[in-house]
Amino acid sequence: MAKKAESTVEEKLRALFDLQLIDSRVDEIRNIRGELPLEVQDLEDEVEGMSTRLDKMNADLEVIEESIKDKNNLIAEAKSLIKKYSKQQDNVRNNREYNSLGKEVEYQELEIQLADKHIKEFKAQIEQKKEVVDTTKDRLKERQVHLKHKHSELDEILSETEKEEKALLKESQKYEKNIEERLVKAYHRIRTNVKNGLAVVPVERGASGGSFFTIPPQVQMEIAARKKIITDEHSGRILVDPALAEEEKNKMAKLFKKII
After folding, report:
1. How far apart are CA 126 and CA 98, in angstroms?
2. Which end of the chain, N or C, is less packed with Cβ atoms under 10 Å?
3. How far apart are CA 197 and CA 187, in angstroms?
4. pLDDT averaged over the chain?
5. CA distances from 116 to 10, 78, 108 (A)
């Protein structure tokens, strides 16, 4: 390509259309991937969240199990005290001491009853939590299998397209360097604002590519003359004539084959 300052309008149009063809091919590759990377990310987040919940539930179960152990220790201690107080009752000197020891025995019996009640409650909690844990484990396993499948799907697509995409992006940057800055900025602005990222389009059947608005014959002649850059009054797209477009498509098809 000629230097920016020496480029003719035709050369600028060809360069812009070539850039469009390259960027459209990149868009095509990214459309093939579609929402898959986001889907994989969402699945990864879901799996991580479920794993975190499982860890927390298992930690809660450990706390409850420890609580049961504490209550069983309390029961054992209370039984030991009951045995001790009952033995002491056999050796008391008066009723006051006997009644006092009797109250201690009653208190320890109440402690045992209360501890038994708590143990039953803890065991019920464990059963409930274990049900949730089992359900979550099954769900997690299912999501992990699904994630593995989606990862394989994404890896396959990436292996097929990543190399080509990188090469195309490099070509895109190279082509941009051979186009004056104001045109590159205009190209990107149009590309951002129009459907399918098509900023440079050929005239097709007397209308702007992808549009139903007819271009006046005089304007079509000016486009074919390649003496000035003309934009579509409805969409703002840069217009090129069909012959130029076909020539550049054939040229870029050869480049794409080399890249692949």
Report:
1. 42
2. C
3. 10
4. 91
5. 92, 12, 12
| CA–CA distance, 13 with 202 (Å, rounded to integer) | 11
Digit-coded pLDDT (tens) for 149-162: 999 988 888 887 88
In terms of DSSP H, where are the helices of the chain?
A: 9-33, 36-89, 95-177, 181-193, 217-225, 242-259
d(CA 238, CA 232) in angstroms, rounded, equals 6
pLDDT tens, position by position, 69-114:
999 999 999 999 999 999 999 888 899 999 999 999 999 999 999 9
Q: In Å, how far from its chain's centre is CA 246? A: 39
pLDDT digits (tens, 9 = 90+) for 149-201: 999 988 888 887 888 889 999 999 999 998 999 999 999 999 999 878 999 99
CB 217 within 8 A of CB 232: no
What is the C-alpha to C-alpha distance for residues 224 and 218, in angstroms, rounded to an integer?
A: 10
Q: Give one DSSP letter per residue of 179-210, joined into a string.
A: S-HHHHHHHHHHHHHSGGG--EEEEETTEETT
Q: Which domains does the chain have, with CATH numbers?
A: 4-33+180-259 (no CATH), 36-160 (1.10.287.1490)
Residue 260 pLDDT level (bands cut at 50, 70, 90): low
- Amino acid, res. 194: V
Closest by CA to 15, choosing from 237, 240, 242, 198, is 240
C-alpha span between 205 and 214 (Å, rounded): 8
Cβ atoms of residues 204 and 242 within 8 Å: yes
